[in-house]
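For this section, I looked closely at a protein sequence along with its fold in token form, which I now present.
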Amino acid sequence: MKRLLKRIGIALLLLLVAFNVLALPWEPNIFTTLGEAANMHYRGNNQVEQYMDASRNAKTGVRNSQGVAFYGVAVPEGNTVGQPVSLDYNAGRDDGNRLHVKIGAAAPVNSGLYDWEIVPLAYYADSPYTGAVTFLGDPPDTEDTKLTDIAEAAAGEGKNAFWIKYHPDLGNTLVGYNLCLVDAMLVVRGEEPINAKVRDFAMGDAYPRIQGYNDSGYAIDESAKTMAAEFEQKLWARYFTWDTIPTYMDDGTPTIMLVAHRDAWDTYIYSDDGMPITYRLNGNKIEFTGYPVYQHMKARSCTWNLTLTEGKSIPVELPLDLDLTMVGLDMYPTLGNDMAKRWLITGNSIENCNFMRVNYEAVSELVDFMRMRESYEAMKAVNPVVFNAAERACHWTAFFRAVKKDHENAWVSFLDMLKIQYPKGSEDPAIRLNTPRLWVAD
């Protein structure tokens, strides 16, 4: 009897393995369970906090917004220049073979995208907003006490709690979840360049195999592991500067102590800014050039909105270390004429002062390093699932925007076909996945 039960158990295990490649949805939501193990937390009502845009700083050309944002509009190259483009979405075909692209007189090619990618990316590309995900969201309303309690407890332990916001068409989708992981990947404390809690997310047997995401082709061989490790060492070396402090050993022998400071950057954005996306036909597929990368930034100054006694409000850029609360600008701030003359060259008193933004400048050494093709391929080797999906999101968003811009009738026709199966805002479980609202980083 025991032998029979054992055989039945083995058969059931093999059956589970055979059906472990899933199309969304699955039950239970294993990503949610494993995400909570990585300190990602979810709203009970599944409400998405919307993140709408990312703007550029006029002085430095640097995007002020942090997180993930795709700005590009793909440009045709080679055999696609000047050719008409049409998109054919057919829900009657198998998932992964539903969106075909026809360029010029060439035969239609399969995009290879699955519905979990097509739907959110098409609506995202159709919107006027470029921001995808940010960890600089606001806390929820007072009704969501569970997440607020978690955040307060984390702060009490000296941990960072990040409130996550999504573009309205990317929240509660696998695309949005994946870009959340991209944003979290470099949020570290101490001396590690990659966050240990998310670096292996979606990899390994603990995660369900999702078609087109992590179902095939993502085994990391030893050479890729070596490449990723070498990349992390190079990135680590660029993150830190070192102070040499003379000191003495226990026996009185003079020595030098090295103290590391991670002061090379303050924040980053993962985007295709400055990395043009092009497309061309290569056999039976569309081939893209250009790719998204992490672009590190250093805080340069702060902008405050100052209201003068005469009622005029003006933005003023001030040094980062000027703490206006220390000169009386607290709940009902008043700044005397001396400070006003010093900063504004004006005789007016300042009746109110509101913080507007931190201004950043690109860390050119880090940006140039991350843009190198060698660095980009090594970064993907850290987690091929997450970064390959992010690359596809970038490429196809740019391509969809190009179709919308240059082939308006084809774009409208495509959206009409898509809306039949998935109206905008659809809660169809085939494309929905609960995305985290709060992340606690150790």
User: Anything to note?
Assistant: Residues 6 and 413 are 56 Å apart (CA to CA). The first strand starts at residue 21 and ends at 22. The longest helix spans residues 384-406. The chain has eleven helices and 20 strands.
